[in-house]
Design a protein that fits this description.
821 residues, alpha+beta, 27 helices, 38% helix
């Protein structure tokens, strides 16, 4: 028997597949298509075991669909710009351009060694000019449509990364999602994409995403944060000016006892200018200068504020209430002004208690009535309205619409919809990114770079500044430019784009990656897209996945495509941990695939990560598990070389009883049926289990006596065909020994016979009063009466019913009998 030399086998088939042009995405007319895509990696280091887990999932699907007769597009590329790559370069002491491309070479080598069936002719990298030229082109299209704009704003500044972050890139605790540093607020003039203009479409169209996990959809819905309520106009006593607020609780309007403005609200300066409280407000703002919006709005944050020496008039009851500024009111949410109802909002309640402001109950709960002075927390649930004029005695939930009617009838306000979503801050104060194609001219103002001048090249032959600061503002050859309009002296924008812009459209580029005239060929996109199966981590739910949906809708509005959702189906894989902890370089617990490929083989590594458990759950790494996968593959190797091959030579062995052969065929066809079903349901771990059971069945079939060569061949070839998406190298090698010619990856996916796949026997569970007392094997066609009879013959069950009255016998056909005593 030849040795199972995985290194020689892997090298052989990698070279042959390359020479044969295997896995190229060719369009065959008359076939359905499957675009299978896994989120592309950051080339910030070598491949890790998380990459193996993710990309093995995608490769199984791609190989399976090819053999099912689909046109399959399964590409790969690199998300090569941005902080991950730049920080990796800084750590290594290399220039980002060299570090990134070196890492791309390393990851590419690992991916090829793992046998992934990518169409390598479509490989892309977002840091190459032929790609980012079109990223810049999309920026210009956004600018033309008013979707890209520059504005002063309070931003999330990460001191460690040296750049601003979008809201989506800051964790709930106020830390940077890249490095974990606490972000701080900073006023800056920044570029934004007007994603809020698409909020309603992004929300409504989620109803069409039936192939997405509900958890991801819930996260996006919550992030978009649509709410229905009312805009209400309060009147500033000193000037008569109207100040609008937005509320989802118009039923609490009669309980307003004070009014709050965000510290950044322009009216704050007007109210305290030259007044006694001006210094207090300045000190208050200084205290807040190092607090992020996340910290300010956290429930546990102590409420803080300053009285602004003015009052507003509540339109519904004429009440005169004081105006304060408060730390938990944000200018970027709503209108920057809030009506405060301390009896029915917890943050307002805490503020009122701290500053001894009145609390007025306007909604009473069922049961005991609330007494304002005795309250220890706000009552925020529905109830019966009190001290609310004409609405007294009515249910609060039922009065919201009536109060909105009253507001509109009297000109005090109107129904309104609000969103939590904010525009996407897309400019970054870092070097390694796509240059923003904008020029500033003292005479002409902000001028977009003409399309014919794209790409605006990122200069790569320049040293980085200290602390990760961008050197672009100091590079005169880049910073200085001629105005495209007047030809005069001008300057370039030196901020670069958020790397999430690069990844918001890359899946389009794979369709026609070498197109020089457009970001993609629309005809090819109509053929291949949308993506049929997308695979990636749930951590991208409100980052990449939301941005990609936004970009696709913009591209649809540009008239370039005929669909507006990029991903039909989404699979979010779980994390692989080591000793229960997340893998990280700092912890020294990263599992690199290279050593396992060398020692045990790529097939063993692939098989183990697919066998560990359901893909969507987190799983803990085990070296013993990979070794077990290798032992199983060695067993398959021996099955073909030691058992199968000799039996297929020479004279035919005696046939033996027909029942043995039918049982073997039945097991083979059940395995084909179950593996097919499990692959389509992403149950890869149980699919592998069924293949293992079939291998055991083949060994038993051979060991128990005479075999039928056709039956044996059917079973062994089924093993190789079913294994091939999971372990392509050994399957291809053994197919060349045992198969009928060709390549296993080119064979049609095996079909099954329903009659053969149906088991001849089933195991009945015998219960007494719902507790399992025995199990018996019976024919699959057993009747209910026969099931009762067999149950009453079971000695283990009879011990519990002997001498007792049987009240009834419950029968679940083909599954169980429950004797009730």
């Amino acid at each position: 028997m030849p040795e199972y030399d995985h290194k020689a086998i892997e090298t052989k088939w990698i070279e042959r597949w390359k020479a044969e042009g295997a896995f190229r995405a060719e369009w065959a007319p008359g076939r359905e298509k499957k675009y299978v895509l896994v989120m592309f990696p950051y080339p910030s280091g070598q491949a890790h075991i998380g990459h193996v887990a993710n990309y093995s999932l995608g490769d199984v699907m791609a190989r399976y669909y090819r053999r099912k007769g689909y046109n399959v597009l399964h590409p790969i590329g690199y998300d090569a710009f941005g902080l991950p790559a730049e920080n990796a370069a800084i750590s290594s002491g290399l220039h980002p351009a060299k570090c990134t491309r070196d890492n791309i070479d390393l990851i590419t080598d690992d991916l090829k060694r793992l046998g992934y069936s990518y169409d390598w002719s479509r490989e892309i990298s977002t840091c190459e000019p032929e790609y980012y030229r079109w990223t810049q082109w999309f920026f210009l299209k956004m600018y033309e449509r008013g979707l890209a704009y520059k504005a002063d704003a309070i931003t999330n500044w990460c001191p460690s990364c040296g750049t601003v972050l979008a809201n989506e890139q800051v964790h709930a605790d106020g830390s940077c999602e890249r490095c974990g540093t606490q972000v701080v607020p900073r006023w800056l003039n920044q570029w934004f994409f007007k994603v809020t203009e698409y909020a309603e479409r992004l929300l409504d169209d989620m109803d069409r995403l039936e192939g997405w996990p509900e958890r991801v959809l819930t996260m996006q819905r919550n992030w978009i944060g649509k709410s229905r309520g009312a805009r209400v106009d309060f009147t500033l006593e000193s000037t008569g000016e109207k100040i609008s607020i937005y509320t989802t609780r118009p039923d609490t309007l009669y309980g307003v006892t004070f009014f709050l403005l965000a510290p950044e609200h322009p009216l704050v300066d007007v109210l305290v200018s030259g007044a006694e409280r001006e210094a207090d407000v300045a000190a208050f703002r200084e205290r807040l200068s190092q607090s992020t919006s996340f910290e300010r709005t956290a429930l546990e944050t102590e409420k803080d504020g300053v009285f602004l020496e003015d009052y507003v008039i509540n339109p519904v009851n004429g009440a005169r209430v004081p105006v304060h500024t408060a730390n938990f009111v944000l200018m970027e949410y709503g209108t920057g002004a809030v009506m405060a109802v301390p009896a029915h909002d917890q943050r307002d309640f805490e503020f009122a208690r701290k500053y001894d402001l009145p609390v007025t109950v306007v909604i009473q709960p069922p049961g005991n009535a609330l007494v304002a002075r005795e309250m220890t927390e706000a009552y925020e649930d529905p109830g019966v309205m009190v001290d609310s004029g004409e609405f007294d005695g009515a249910r609060s939930e039922q009065c919201k619409e009536a109060i909105c009617d009253m507001l509109e009838a009297n000109g005090w306000g109107e129904r309104a919809v609000n969103y939590r979503l904010r525009d996407w801050l897309v400019s970054r104060q870092r070097y390694w990114g796509t240059p923003i194609p904008i020029i500033y001219c003292d005479r002409c103002g902000t001028v977009p770079v003409p399309e014919e001048d794209l790409p605006v090249l990122l200069p790569e032959e320049m040293p980085l500044a200290d602390g990760g600061k961008s050197p672009l503002p100091l590079e005169e050859s880049f910073h200085n430019a001629a105005c495209p309009v007047c030809g005069g002296d001008a300057t370039r924008e030196t901020d670069t784009m958020d790397t999430f812009i690069d990844s918001s459209w890359y899946f389009f580029r794979y369709v026609s990656p070498r197109d020089r005239d457009a970001p993609f060929d629309s005809e090819n996109v109509r053929a291949w897209m949308p993506v049929d199966q997308y695979i990636g981590g749930i951590e991208h739910a409100i980052l990449h996945l939301l941005y990609a949906r936004f970009f696709t809708k913009v591209i649809y509005d540009l008239g370039m495509i005929d669909f507006d959702e990029p991903f039909e189906n989404l699979l979010c894989q779980g994390m692989i941990t080591k000793d229960g902890a997340k893998m990280s370089k700092s912890k020294g617990n990263v599992v690199a695939p290279g050593a396992y490929i060398d020692r045990l083989g790529a097939d063993a590594l692939r098989l183990y990560v697919l066998f560990m458990g359901p893909p969507e759950i987190s799983k803990d790494w085990s070296d013993a598990g990979v070794e077990g996968a290798r032992r199983f593959l060695s067993r398959v190797w021996r099955m073909v070389h030691e058992r199968f091959a000799p039996l297929m030579e020479g004279d035919a062995p005696p046939a033996g009883p027909a029942s043995r052969h039918r049982a073997m065929r039945s097991m083979t066809h059940r395995a084909i049926m179950n593996v097919t079903r499990d692959i389509e349901q992403f149950a890869f771990n149980t699919a592998v289990s069924f293949i293992m059971e079939l291998v055991n069945g083949v060994y038993h079939y051979i060991s128990d006596g005479a075999v039928d060569r056709e039956v044996l061949a059917e079973a062994v070839l089924a093993v190789l065909q079913l294994l091939s998406p999971f372990t392509p190298f050994i399957a291809e090698e053994l197919w060349s020994v045992a198969g009928t010619g060709g390549r296993v990856h080119e064979q049609p996916w095996p079909s099954w016979d329903e009659d053969l796949a149906r088991p001849e026997e089933v195991t009945l569970i015998i219960q007494v009063n719902g507790k399992v007392r025995d199990r018996v094997t019976v024919g699959v066609d057993i009747s209910k009466d026969e099931m009762k009879a067999r149950a009453l013959e079971c000695e283990n069950a009879l011990r519990y019913v002997e001498g007792k009255d049987i009240r009834k016998i419950i029968v679940v056909p083909g599954k169980l009998v429950n004797i009730v005593i």
